[in-house]
Write a structure and sequence with these properties.
Domain Ribosomal RNA adenine methylase transferase N-terminal: 19-188
Oligomer: single chain
Number of strands: 8
Number of helices: 10
Largest sheet: 6 strands, mixed
Distance between the termini: 66 Å
Strand content: 15-25%
EC number: 2.1.1.182
Protein name: Ribosomal RNA small subunit methyltransferase A
CATH topology of the largest domain: Rossmann fold
CATH superfamily of the largest domain: Vaccinia Virus protein VP39
CATH class of the largest domain: Alpha Beta
Pfam families: RrnaAD
InterPro entries: KsgA/Erm (IPR001737), rRNA_Ade_diMease-like_C (IPR023165), rRNA_Ade_methylase_Trfase_N (IPR020598), rRNA_adenine_dimethylase (IPR011530), SAM-dependent_MTases_sf (IPR029063)
Helix content: 25-40%
Structural class: alpha/beta
Amino acid sequence: MIVKAKKHLGQHFLHDENIAQKIVASLDGTHYPNVLEVGPGTGVLTKYLLDRSVTLSLAEIDEESIAYLKETYPPITEETFVGDFLRLDIEGNFDSEVGVIGNFPYNISSQILFKIIDNYRKIPEMVGMFQKEVAERTAAKPRQKSYGILSVLVQAYYDVEYLFTVNENVFTPPPKVKSGVIKLTRNPKEALTGIEDLFKKIVKAGFNQRRKKLSNALKIMRIPQSMASHPFLDCRAEELNVEDFIQFSIEWRNSCEG
């Protein structure tokens, strides 16, 4: 049985076994019982995950891939599949923590990362392959060109490690850009408790007008009068690190409560 990559699903099937093994080996997987692979495709990662002492679930929406995986790997049954990752109720589907891994569909890269941070309490670790640009954005630091909303929001909940770059020629069909593999290890900033929504609003508003100082970019949120002379307002969003944004959000909340 042959599985054809479908453009509308953002499928690019990895066919390099060494890279597949390297990705799977990067997932620690020793301190939680479940692993969820997103977009298994033809099973190049799946075959190595099946060798592990974990309960494996697969998030796949391509019926052709589902049929192929069940036919090729007998341990996989209908019950292994959990449907569309972006619609999956992770809290309801998993009683305990679950590591996430995948050669992720390129057309939903950002949505996958936001889904993971929305479920950080259940997901202690993720290893995944994205377009190189998305991988770099996720791992970026202040003042780097690729530093932005994605960088700050992911790094507020996870330590991010850029593992390695993958060339186009190891995929079928080859994508037009290089790929990057990153690892997320949960490390939520405790100071976020009680200010998560405000923090996210400030980060998004700041980067939506990234060339402007925060004094202008945050006008839409009505800056508290008591913070009018705050030194961070004289900075651009790209100059602040995660801890700066958290501290700024705490002071904003305190000003509103005072």
